[in-house]
Write a structure and sequence with these properties.
By secondary structure, the chain is mostly beta strands. The protein has a single domain, classed as Alpha-Beta Complex (Nucleoside Triphosphate Pyrophosphohydrolase), CATH 3.90.79.10. Helix content is 11%, strand content 50%. The chain contains one helix and eight strands, in the order E-E-E-E-H-E-E-E-E. Strands 1, 2, 4, 5 and 6 form a five-stranded mixed sheet that branches. It has a three-stranded antiparallel sheet with strand order 3-8-7.
């Protein structure tokens, strides 16, 4: 199955999922950054053709972190329209929440590139 995305001249569209993953006492969330990035993001990725968003977030989290058997709940849907250089990008994102009850002790996860994690305190 292919990712749900397309490009038409100077326009791009993508259908994505992301997750807010809390630690067991809900005082931290899991964020990622790429090797050359100066920003952090929620884990997630693109939804594939004929894939439901809940299936996509389970697949993406397993691919990026190895975490399985999380209970995800839909927390919101967002639409972003971004103008970058001379290109317009429209993106729909379904964001889910989950609690990871086990210890998160590794500092890097393997995906298409090494992704470093950060736990941000929300107290």
């Amino acid at each position: 199955m292919k990712d749900i995305k397309y490009k038409n001249n100077k326009f791009k569209f993508a259908y994505r999922v992301s997750a807010i993953i809390y630690n067991s006492d809900q005082t931290e969330i899991l964020l990622f950054t790429g090797n050359d990035s100066d920003y952090y993001m929620l884990p997630g990725g693109k939804v594939k053709e004929l894939e439901e968003s809940i299936q996509a977030i389970r697949r993406e989290i397993k691919e990026e972190t190895g975490f399985e058997n999380l209970h995800f709940e839909l927390s919101g849907i967002s639409e972003e329209i971004i103008k970058a250089d001379d290109e317009n990008i429209q993106q729909i994102t379904f964001t889910y929440t989950a609690i990871y009850n086990e210890k998160i002790d590794n500092q890097e996860f393997k995906s298409k590139e090494i992704i470093k994690k950060a736990r941000i305190s929300i107290n």
